TrEMBL record:
Sorted UniProt keywords: Magnesium, Metal-binding, Transferase
Family affiliation: Belongs to the FPP/GGPP synthase family.
Superkingdom, taxonomy of origin: Bacteria
Organism, as annotated: Lysinibacillus pakistanensis
Signal peptide: none
Entry cofactors: Mg(2+)
InterPro entries: ComQ, Isoprenoid_synthase_dom_sf, Polyprenyl_synt
Name of this protein: Transcriptional regulator
Keyword RNA-binding: no
Phylogenetic lineage: Bacteria, Bacillati, Bacillota, Bacilli, Bacillales
Length: 300
């Protein structure tokens, strides 16, 4: 996928350089934030390109601009998320007021870039962008409220927050290619986002530091499972989450319970449920093997 990342990055450079409505300071910050994003790759833009290529025989190079637009949208959401959580080491967290303006500029630019392409179905793509972006924002709101404390409500929240963004990326590629979207792509692309979020939740609990969800009294699938148990560790965690009770966690005992008491295994099991759901839909979509391999990798 290295070649796709290079195309997307080149398109981003050209777009940012040619944007006349941004002043020097704003544009400089945007460029520097883009460079930080570059280190983790452009996975959402890749999803867009792969799904465009899957459903068309004629490659319009404007697809790289669309992929760049999607990456700007994703980066704007990442910045806003980090500013809300106040837990990031990225440079945008050092100047939150200025960085918020950069994020707002990216949001506006995303639809503007797509509108300026030559695609016949660009208006449908913009409609998908707006619809699914709003869904993700609603999911982010639910996440910040921290009220999703059971499996069903938590899955619904991450389906909106994360699933909307992976679905947005895939469906825009598909609709630009053929003017319509399919239920199969809609379903498995949403599940990929759920899978990725669960993986992040599991990984985030393996480091006991300022970003740890449990230490910050946040909810995720492993924590929901732990809180449902009836043992000394779960009782101490419940007390810790109860702001009316002064409680200190035994980090070693809690970490051991998460790892060996079934919480992590439970989250992995839920992740695999969505993996098999996604694979069942993917089976019926005519995507080249290299594309399917990449999608399956995201489901692991």
């Amino acid at each position: 996928m290295k070649g796709l990342d290079e195309h997307i990055n080149e398109s981003l450079d050209i777009i940012l350089e040619n944007e006349t409505m941004l002043g020097y300071d704003l544009k400089s910050m945007l460029k520097s934030f883009k460079e930080e994003k570059r280190t983790v790759g452009y996975s959402f833009g890749r999803l867009c390109i792969l799904h465009y290529e899957a459903f068309t025989e004629r490659l319009d190079k404007d697809i790289y601009k669309v992929a760049a637009a999607i990456e700007l949208l994703i980066l704007s959401f990442d910045i806003i998320d980090d500013l809300q959580d106040k837990d990031s080491d990225y440079s945008w967290s050092k100047t939150p007021e200025l960085s918020l303006n950069v994020a707002l500029a990216m949001l506006v630019m995303a639809s503007k870039i797509i509108r300026e392409t030559s695609f016949e179905h660009k208006n449908k793509a913009i409609q998908i962008l707006e619809e699914y972006a709003l869904g993700s924002i609603n999911g982010q709101q639910l996440d910040l409220l921290n009220n999703c404390r059971d499996e069903q409500s938590y899955i619904q929240m991450i389906e909106q927050k994360s699933g909307s963004l992976t679905a947005l990326s895939c469906l825009i590629g598909e609709v630009l290619a053929k003017g319509e979207i399919s239920s199969q792509v809609k379903e498995y692309s949403k599940y990929i986002g759920i899978i990725q979020q669960i993986k992040n939740d599991i990984q985030g609990l393996k480091t006991w530091g300022p970003k740890n969800d449990l230490l910050n009294k946040r909810y995720s699938l492993p924590i929901i499972y732990l809180l449902s148990q009836k043992n000394d560790v779960s009782k101490s965690v419940k007390n810790y989450y109860n702001d009316d009770i002064v409680a200190v966690l035994d980090n070693n005992a809690t970490e051991n319970e998460l790892t060996n008491g079934g919480a992590i295994r439970y989250a992995i099991t839920i992740k695999n449920v969505y993996k098999f759901k996604a694979l069942s839909y993917l089976e019926n979509v005519a995507i080249k093997e290299v594309g399917k391999d990449y999608l399956k990798k995201l489901m692991k």
